[in-house]
Amino acid sequence: MCGIFFSLSPTDHLIPTSSTERLLMNRGPDSFGKHQALVLPQLRATFISTVLSLRGNNITTQPLRDQRAESVLCWNGEAWKIGPDLVEGNDSQLVFDLFLQASSNASRDSSSSSIRQMVQAVSTIRGPFAFVFYDAQNSCLYYGRDCLGRRSLLQKSTSVGELILSSVCDNASGDQWHEVDADGLYVLDLKCAATQKLEPIRIPHCRSGNEAAPGLALPLPFPSLNKSVPDGPHQPDLLNVQRLLGSLAKSLWLRIRRIRESVIDSAESDTKIAILFSGGLDCTLLARLSHNALPLGAGVDLLNVAFENPRIHGTLGPGESPYELCPDRITGRTSHAELVRVCPNRRWRFVEINVPYSETMEHRTRVMTLMHPHNTEMDLSISYALYFASRGIGLVRGNPNSPPRPYSTPAHVLLSGLGADELFGGYQRHAVAFSRTGYPGLIDELELDFDRLGKRNLGRDDRVISDSGKEVRFPYLDEDVIALALDLPVWAKCDFENGNLPDSDDPSRRLEPGKRILRLAAWNTGMKSVAAEKKRAIQFGSRTAKMETGRTKGTQVLS
């Protein structure tokens, strides 16, 4: 995981403010590199990269430079595969070589040829990323995010023709910053700088199998949503549950193997991964499947955050803890106990992250800076939970009755269950859509949720979490998992036509219809209590919602 800063100016080499530089270094504490170049007689470029080394046996410093061609890459991402091939070790040099080959294969007198080669190269990468690549041979600048927007990239343009790209900003310049849309590949033909204003062109995405897309397009690695509806009574197909479990297992294996192999962080460095853990279905299923993929000697930290909310916890009885009253703390403890029972040979550390109201307010400005340009009450309440959870600083107990001791997770990779609700129908609005217009309405709602994934939260979450020198990974948003989820008929994922029968011996009828396929997956791995857990939004489960006043709405813009 890395921090990126790039600037292009006709007048001077622009560098980040000191506060933005510190934010970039928080993201990448293992390496800081800067390169400045005159890319054309009238254009000055600055490339800065910070690196958090998570893969391979050594640190690959950035920006990456090709001495012969003078091309430069700032890469923030994880390429799990390039084409059909798994990426072993560090991925940044392999991506750079891929881009260099694409640029050298192009006809030197044809910008369209070089762009076409780069589009083909980018389309072969599987995994989360944001990058800036200067193709010196063809005088082109490329930048963008992966098709889901799993890594942050912000942009600022000025009236004097300057372009600035950064993983994070200090918010000092206000609303000039905006997120680079995760809607394709952006290209600047720098040869045009002498005669016209530089305006990036966008190479849009096209869905797999969509041959009718006009012009040059970046193919997506998954199909359109299956919109078929059942033509009569139907039963859950348990084969689909097994297919999903297999796909999730592969996704997890890619994301948790060979992490920081050359780094010894602490005496408890057996723990390389931690899970953002509310105790809900999505994150607990990831924990259960991680057990199958990790060696038994590897610990797993379960980061469970709870907040003191004066609006709710204003009056407490004798001996009552505001943190133990939080719904996510209650479900977290229950799910932790079930993990211990089902997987007794694993070292599960339940990390109690308790956040007093005074500490929340102390970090308010910092959290708002990190989530910028997002600026609503809901953004803030969700960001609070992710910010404090990702720090991983809390308390652990040797057993439920022992006194707690201070603990800070050594894990630099965090797993998140984000994406499961959008893919498998876990929100209340999915049930409402079905109740109003049946399966066609539910399909429309699911399609809307998936299509806006890249425009909503992922860039914000990346900025907030990465400030702790951690990298968040999303197993449910693996390209192959998504392809399977989109290909399944809607009733195989969330069967609202067949409501749950709590007394039934058949789990396919006993469990709630929302995300029923995931509930059946959890049930089949022994996690029967977790399979029945109800959905709860993070801001309500951790008690970050409406901390300062109860009269605000989530959509209210912050001052």
Provide a compact summary of the structure:
By secondary structure, the protein is α+β, with helices and mostly antiparallel strands.
The shape is: globular
Largest sheet: 7 strands, mixed
> Count of helical segments?
19
| Proportion of helical residues | 25-40%
User: How big a fraction of the residues is strand?
Assistant: 15-25%
Distance from N terminus to C terminus (CA atoms, Å) equals 32 Å
The CATH superfamily of the largest domain bears the name HUPs
**Structural class designation:** alpha+beta
Oligomer: single chain
Number of domains: 2
Return the CATH class of the largest domain.
Alpha Beta
The beta-strand count equals: 23
What is the CATH T-level topology of the largest domain? Rossmann fold
Strand order, biggest sheet?
4-5-9-10-14-15-16
Radius of gyration: 24 Å
The low-pLDDT segments are none
Mean pLDDT: 89
What CATH architecture label of the largest domain applies?
Answer: 3-Layer(aba) Sandwich
Topology record:
Layout: E1 2-9, H1 18-27, E2 31-40, E3 43-51, E4 64-65, E5 72-77, E6 81-82, E7 85-86, H2 92-105, H3 111-123, E8 125-126, E9 129-135, E10 140-145, E11 154-157, E12 163-166, E13 178-179, E14 184-189, E15 201-206, E16 218-219, H4 238-256, E17 273-276, H5 281-293, E18 300-307, H6 327-342, E19 348-355, H7 357-362, H8 364-371, H9 377-391, E20 393-396, E21 405-408, E22 413-415, H10 420-424, H11 428-451, H12 453-456, H13 458-466, E23 471-473, H14 479-487, H15 490-493, H16 507-510, H17 516-524, H18 528-531, H19 538-541
Parallel strand pairs: 15-16, 17-18, 17-22, 18-19, 22-23
Antiparallel strand pairs: 1-3, 1-12, 2-3, 4-5, 5-9, 6-7, 6-8, 9-10, 10-14, 11-12, 11-13, 14-15, 20-21
